[in-house]
Amino acid sequence: MPTISMFYGILIKMFFMDTEKHNLPHIHAEYSGEVAVYSIENGDLLAGSIPKNKHKLVVAWLEIHKESLLADWQLAIEGKSLFQIKGLE
Predict the structure, then answer these.
(1) Helix, strand or coil, per DSSP, at residue 5
(2) Which pTM was predicted?
(3) Rounded to an integer, what distance in angstroms lies between the CA atom of residue 53 and that of residue 85?
(4) Is the pLDDT of residue 86 over 60?
């Protein structure tokens, strides 16, 4: 599962083959051993959890980078390399 971004100790990963559990474009956010899965389209939490303050950062980041994330999702489906996406500064 490639890491496409990193900020404030949060790793953002994308793995499109995970459609059995989450049949829509999504990302995995990992922080301190915890993992949460978010919808790219609307930022909804699909599974798991991370601390509330980190959750808010991920949701804000998703909103800012939605178009880039959807482009990466399409690349992943096509088996191509994903682009790195800027974290929160």
Answers:
(1) strand
(2) 0.90
(3) 21
(4) yes
Q: What is the DSSP string of 26-88?
A: EEEEEETTEEEEEETTT--EEEE---HHHHHHHHHHHHHTHHHHHHHHHHHHTTPPPPP----
Share above pLDDT 90 across residues of the chain, in percent, rounded to a whole number: 76
Question: Tokens standing for 56?
Answer: 């808010």
With CA atoms as reference, report the closest residue to 49 among 40, 60, 58: 58
Helix 66-77 × helix 52-64 angle, to 10°: 80
CA distance linking residue 76 with residue 48, whole number of Å: 22
Query: What is the pLDDT at residue 76?
Result: 86
Contact indicator for 39, 46 with CB cutoff of 8 Å: yes
65 to each of 32, 41, 43, how far by Cα in Å?
A: 23, 11, 11
Cβ atoms of residues 58 and 38 within 8 Å = yes
